[in-house]
Write a structure and sequence with these properties.
About 85% of the residues lie in helices and about 0% in strands. The chain is mainly α. The longest helix is centred in the C-terminal third of the chain and has 18 residues. The two termini are about 25 Å apart. The model has no long low-confidence stretch (mean pLDDT about 90).
Length: about 180
């Protein structure tokens, strides 16, 4: 659990291994995120980002920034979610990591949907879906489509919510995904 990660942090500090500290902070943040403790998750993503900005691991930095943005999206702090997601996307594009780019498009779609900008939301979701289908990454597509459905349902747009739910169901059937 967390105790072992904090122990790893001590070793990284003793070894003066800053990038290792940054990676441990990401792992701690991920653990808090998985246990739905967004407050602590964003604190540790912030610590990791601060360290990783000074290193050479651009992909690790982009993932930490994306995950922080994702946490802010979960917290409905949409301005922060948007800033972090756009910054991560710039890095994903620079390191040529299309799946990361797709995840950003997916989150941007959800952010714009939450803000009521249906057209931009759908453009981003469709970009994410196209990229993820190329890489046969179907589960994130289903998550994005289901999330979009719930956002539109919450915003009172039942027809659009139903469209997204049906897209998700049809894709799950097509690729034999049970969850």
């Amino acid at each position: 659990g967390l105790e072992s990660y904090f122990q790893s942090m001590k070793y990284a500090e003793k070894a003066d291994y800053e990038e290792g500290r940054g990676k441990v902070f990401v792992t701690i943040a991920d653990t808090y995120s998985q246990s739905e403790n967004s407050q602590n998750a964003v604190i540790y993503y912030g610590k990791s980002i601060e360290i990783l900005r000074n290193g050479k691991d651009s992909l690790g930095l982009a993932m930490a920034i994306f995950n922080a943005g994702d946490e802010y999206l979960n917290m409905k702090k949409l301005d922060s979610a948007l800033l972090y997601t756009k910054e991560a996307q710039v890095i994903f594009e620079k390191v040529n990591y299309p799946i990361g780019d797709a995840y950003c498009f997916g989150n941007l779609g959800m952010i714009y949907a939450e803000n009521g900008d249906k057209i931009v939301a759908e453009e981003n979701i469709n970009k994410a879906v196209r990229i993820l289908e190329v890489y046969k990454e179907y589960e994130p597509i289903l998550v994005s489509l289901a999330f979009m459905s719930s956002i539109f349902l919450h915003n009172g747009d039942q027809p659009t919510a139903l469209e997204y739910a049906e897209r998700s169901l049809n894709l799950a059937k097509r690729y034999g995904i049970k969850d």
